[in-house]
């Protein structure tokens, strides 16, 4: 069973992360990233995909050309969990 | 300069393609695909990404776990062009 982050842990997380916002009407967070071009955007997505598969926790994401929008939430607890925290921090590290 | 498909060419294309629909309110087409799992879905996306980059014509797409939604349109002509036709047919070939 995956547990939702506590209100405190969630608030701390949002302060620690880089450029993530809460999603309106859903218990989820989103980060909108812009890259130099498609090659760089899809390269980023590939790194996230490999990490996501390894952690068995996958993003919801949209891409067009050099833009990527990543939404994170944990379906098993219907909100944010430690799994989202780990993936969001990985994304922040590689997004630079 | 990229030219929009004629009304005839567009109608023919939509008959030829596999599972594509017109997008409400936009001159674009969408195909919603479902795969066995994330590995298979992202593998498909990677094949499309390489082809898109080669043709310098990129999709707008959304993915969550085993689902991929691909939208095609040509910004340069504000509608469907031969570029979308080629990429849509490539997608149909590899989607099986």
TrEMBL record, chains A, B:
What taxonomic classification does the UniProt entry list for its organism?
Bacteria, Pseudomonadati, Pseudomonadota, Alphaproteobacteria, Rhodospirillales
Parts forming coiled coils: none
Under what name is this protein listed?
Putative pterin-4-alpha-carbinolamine dehydratase
Give the protein family: Belongs to the pterin-4-alpha-carbinolamine dehydratase family.
Going by the UniProt record, its keywords in alphabetical order are: Lyase
Q: GO terms for molecular function, please?
A: 4-alpha-hydroxytetrahydrobiopterin dehydratase activity
**What does the record list as GO biological process?**
tetrahydrobiopterin biosynthetic process
What species is given as this protein's source? Aestuariispira insulae
Q: Which Pfam families match?
A: Pterin_4a
| Catalytic activity annotation | (4aS,6R)-4a-hydroxy-L-erythro-5,6,7,8-tetrahydrobiopterin = (6R)-L-erythro-6,7-dihydrobiopterin + H2O
PANTHER family in the cross-refs: PTERIN-4-ALPHA-CARBINOLAMINE DEHYDRATASE
Membrane-crossing segments per the record: none
- This entry's Enzyme Commission designation comes to 4.2.1.96
């Amino acid at each position: 069973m995956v547990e939702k982050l506590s209100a405190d842990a969630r608030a701390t997380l949002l302060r620690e992360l880089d450029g993530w916002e809460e999603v309106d009407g859903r218990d989820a967070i989103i980060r909108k990233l812009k890259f130099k071009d498609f090659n760089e955007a899809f390269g980023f997505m590939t790194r996230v995909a490999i990490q996501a598969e390894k952690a068995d926790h996958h993003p919801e994401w949209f891409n067009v050309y050099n833009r990527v929008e990543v939404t994170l939430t944990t379906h098993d607890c219907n909100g944010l969990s430690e799994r989202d925290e780990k993936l969001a921090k990985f994304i922040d590290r590689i997004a630079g």
